[in-house]
Amino acid sequence: MNRAMQQSNTSRRGFTLIEMITVVVVIGIVSALMVPMLGDTGQSKLVAAANLIAADIGYAQIESISHADDLRFVLFDLDNNSYFIAATSDLSTPITNPIGNKPYRVTFGTGSNRQLSGVAISSVSMGGDNQIRFGIYGELDQATDATVTLTCDGYQITVIIDPTCGDIGMSEITAITEE
Question: So what's the pLDDT on residue 122?
């Protein structure tokens, strides 16, 4: 009996159909997850950059509410593809980022944001200037929506800030059409 079991174990040299199907399914799942990550990297960068700006604007809003005596601004510098958060008491100096204790300045394509290379801050609409200021209740200092438009690889997305309550939203990603 032992010899019969031993003989059947040694004669098996291939894979069963179930094993082959399992491997094919696993490869299919992995490739289905990887293909979107490899394609449309410009669009992925746009979404990541828009989320970063939205989070930083939200942080400035919360900081303004909690520091009513020294409100916060977000100042955009289109020439250097950057922005920073500053206090009303010193608009030329970024506040300290609590993560890393460095100045709260973001420049796409450099430092911790180097993965966002190629993303550009193409335009801002903030009531005639390049800054957003929040009031003590989190409202904007202007009567119309503030917008920040980002571009990358022929696509664009816009971050939109509601003036009355400071809610932050985003447009859909659209292809840039040449006129």
Answer: 94
What's the pTM? 0.76
Alpha-carbon distance of 56 to 3, in angstroms, equals 72
Q: Domain map of the chain by residue range?
A: 41-175
Token pair, residue 112, equals 């911790």
Written as six digits, the tokens of 104 are 């709260």
**Among the CATH numbers 3.90.180.10, 2.40.30.20, 3.40.50.150, 3.55.40.10, which is that of 41-175?**
3.55.40.10
- SS3 call for 161: strand
Nearest to 140 by CA among 153, 129, 154, 155: 129
* pLDDT (mean) for 121-133: 90
Closest CA to 126 of 69, 77, 59: 77
Radius of gyration of the chain (CA): 26
Concatenated DSSP letters of 61-124: HHHHHHTTTS-EEEEEETTTTEEEEEETTEEEEEPEETTTTEE-EEETTSGGGGGGTT-EEEEE
Distance of CA 171 to CAs 11, 30, 42, 155, 161, Å? 63, 30, 16, 12, 11
Question: In this structure, what token pair is assigned to residue 125?
Answer: 């609409």
